[in-house]
Design brief:
There is one protein chain. This protein is of the alpha+beta class. The chain has one domain (about 5-85). The protein is about 60% helix and about 15% strand. A three-stranded antiparallel sheet has the order 1-2-3. Strand 1 and strand 2 (about 55-60) form a beta hairpin. The N and C termini lie far apart (about 40 Å).
């Protein structure tokens, strides 16, 4: 019976790792048009402010600046995930 225990533990660890991966924020699925829509929603919510004179987007909660909607969205999703875990 001791021979099966390591296999069971390895299986359980893999299952737990898959569960964690499924709960994490996914950013791979963000293309340019989707990023533009999300960035517009963030601006409407007041989370992001356009800074015309610097031609950038300001992420208000972190004070980070971005020149790309896609980069902003990837950062914001990571920032949300980090603040949710804290």
């Amino acid at each position: 019976m001791d021979d099966t225990r390591p296999d069971y533990e390895r299986f359980e660890r893999r299952q737990l790792a898959q569960d964690r991966d499924n709960q994490r924020v996914q950013t791979v699925d963000v293309d340019e048009s989707k990023a533009r829509r999300i960035a517009q929603d963030l601006r409407a919510a007041g989370t992001v402010k356009a800074v015309p004179e610097d031609q950038c987007l300001l992420h208000r909660p972190s004070s980070e600046r971005f020149d790309s909607d896609t980069t902003l969205v990837h950062f914001h999703r990571g920032w949300e995930a980090a603040t949710d875990e804290a």
